[in-house]
Amino acid sequence: MKNLDTMTKDERSLLLFLESRATDQSGRVQTRHMNEADMKIVERWNAEGFVKFGRIRSADLSDLGSHWCFLSDEAWTLAHAERKARAYRTWTNRQWKTTDENRNLIEGELG
Predict the structure, then answer these.
(1) Which domains does the chain carry?
(2) Is the dihedral of CA 89, 84, 91, 21 positive or negative?
(3) How far is CA 75 from CA 13, 59, 60, 70, in A?
(4) What does the pLDDT read at residue 83?
(5) Strand-pair partners of 62
(6) For the residues of 57-101, what is the DSSP string, one character each?
(7) Distance (Å, whole) CA 26 – CA 6
(8) So what's the pLDDT on residue 28?
(9) Whole-prediction pTM value?
């Protein structure tokens, strides 16, 4: 069983990329967005059954991608957890303020 704590940053990033392809492109993957390390990871995951990955038959090729992916239940669970964690990290590191935060900051300076 995999967990996010033992996955590398590259593995977590690849998992989210594949999750987005599975969700938004019916599993089609454009491998031009993957590097050699990604391909090695996904080949290992395919052998483990964590993420199924392969080529699309030539008659069905299009500019949407030459490969396909299908996530296991375990991969879906980890992808959801990582997407939530990434959203939290980016929110806490954002470089902008909401209007309410700005209003509270100004009121704090006046009060």
Answers:
(1) 9-110 (1.10.10.10)
(2) positive
(3) 12, 29, 26, 9
(4) 96
(5) 65
(6) PGGG-BTTBSEEEEE-HHHHHHHHHHHHHHHHHHHHT-S---HHH
(7) 28
(8) 96
(9) 0.84
